[in-house]
Amino acid sequence: LFSAVEMAPRDPILGLNEQFNADTNPNKVNLGVGVYFDDNGKLPLLQCVQAAEKTMMEKPTARGYLPIDGIVAYDNAVKGLVFGVDSEPVTSGRVATVQAIGGTGGLKIGADFLKKLNPAAKVLISDPSWENHRALFTNAGFTVDSYAYFDAAANGGKGGVNFDGMLSSLNAAAAGTVVVLHACCHNPTGYDITPEQWDQVIAVVKAKNLTPFLDMAYQGFGYGIAEDGAVIQKFVAAGLNFFVSTSFSKSFSLYGERVGGLSVLCKDKEEAGRVLSQLKIVIRTNYSNPPTHGGAVVAAVLNNPELRALWEKELGEMRVRIKAMRQKLVDGLKAAGVKQDMSFITTQIGMFSYSGLSKDQMVRLRSEFGVYGTDTGRMCVAALNSKNIDYVCQAIAKVI
Ligand code: PMP
Predict the structure, then answer these.
(1) What local confidence, expressed as pLDDT, does residue 157 receive?
(2) Which fold has domain 12-45+319-399?
(3) pLDDT single digits (tens) 37-68
(4) Which residue of the set 108, 115, 250, 328 is catalytic?
(5) Whose CA is nearest to atom 7 of ligand 1?
(6) Helix, strand, coil share (%) of the chain residues, nearest 5
(7) 102: Cβ below 6 Å to ligand 1?
């Protein structure tokens, strides 16, 4: 039965992890995977999460099946975060939201629904994009192309967004094309477009009748929850109907609980009801209904004013620490003798930095120094800390 099954290629990022785990270098640093570590190099267990779990453990509950679309209080909290609790889309009931298995699950539910809705549509993702976008939409049956995004030659060779290229790619897209946009903290480059540029993107999306799918995996890691969500408000204000996937993997440091969501902004409440019914069929035929624990924790935190405030504080601390590490990286590289101006690292946002290092330099970083980033030069700055930063700076300086 399986004799003709070919060996699939290793997942590039998870493969890097395996290589890292096998590395015996005592100084090794993993800047490959997109995970936030605290200043001690530990994966944090947020206090708000611990408090919610403690309360839950005091009154243990049985684990029945959840509704197909998840915990109502969770879905409502997602809507509130994404659109604003008192926003018109939420109060009018025209958002269909489902709990999903991480941000990946939200994307996949949306992709499967879109395939039924508009089977001939193409999907456009940014060049480059999160490595799973292409495979996920391809596996949902779509032809996936990319729109111009990063240009290594921009900003006098320091790199940045090729915005004219992005606009012309979008302008050339056929009506109905699904455009996957990173709402904030672009992965992998760390370069977001400006609010004014978003306005221009929205104008093209509207004029060309494209279908926006916003991937919001890092809300709160850029400038703040509301600040990062401002992009969503712009799409709402433009009168568009669109998809938003949400992830709490990073913002709650709940990677393994697989907590995310999908929200679809519809024309009105009646339409949202119909869309929700279809999303539920996608879920029912894939995994029936979501798991209980992660969703219950997130709902408990977001729906309790004290825990919510604690979460915002802890999320803010993660955001501030990442920014401090970016600055330390720039300063440390200079101190280590790097002549070129690396200050662009502080203009990037979110967990990642496109460092501008070549594949050869990234390979040397790994083999000679045990510093792991992807071959594209992407480094997870959220894994830097006060103990490993000097070593990383020295290593980068040597390969530059
Ligand atoms: N989208 C982007 C842009 C991401 O970076 C990630 C996580 N690396 C995801 C989606 C998936 O999130 P999750 O881990 O919650 O499935």
Answers:
(1) 85
(2) Aspartate Aminotransferase, domain 1 (3.90.1150)
(3) 999 999 999 999 999 999 999 999 999 999 99
(4) 250
(5) 217
(6) 50, 15, 40
(7) yes
